[in-house]
From TrEMBL:
A Pfam family matched in the record: CMD
Domain of life per record: Bacteria
Protein name as catalogued: Carboxymuconolactone decarboxylase family protein
Carboxymuconolactone decarboxylase-like domain sequence ranges: 23-104
InterPro entries named among the record's database cross-references: AhpD-like (IPR029032), AhpD_core (IPR004675), CMD-like (IPR003779)
Lineage of producing organism: Bacteria, Pseudomonadati, Pseudomonadota, Alphaproteobacteria, Rhodobacterales
Length: 112
């Protein structure tokens, strides 16, 4: 799987949706932006949390987007690995399998 392609394809689908459902999309992305702003937790840790939820929910696109965002926010591979370990503790085998996808994505992602 090419994770840069996964994110690029997901972006195309998001843009299509945003063009047709502007008001709902604007609401979602306003929440997204407000939630990920640094506060008591920095953006990197919030992205690691979002990645963990993406793994737990078995959302391939979420794994791609939040791995990329976590990496851009300064997350190391070791931090992704520990995030995966927490997911495995909470979700067992399925989290292991989807968690390894996050590690593969991290290794392939452009940037940071």
């Amino acid at each position: 799987m090419n994770w840069n392609d996964v994110v690029a394809e997901g972006q195309v689908h998001i843009e299509d949706y945003c063009g047709k459902q502007q008001e709902a999309a604007n609401g979602f992305f306003a929440l997204h932006e407000a939630t990920l702003k640094p506060g008591a937790l920095d953006t990197k840790h919030k992205e690691l949390m979002a990645l963990a939820i993406g793994i737990a929910k078995q959302c391939v696109d979420c794994i791609g987007f939040h791995t990329k965002a976590a990496k851009e926010a300064g997350a190391s591979r070791s931090e992704i690995e520990e995030t995966v370990s927490v997911c495995v503790m909470m979700g067992g085998g399925p989290s292991l399998m989807y968690g390894t996808k996050a590690l593969e994505a991290y290794d392939q992602m452009d940037g940071a």
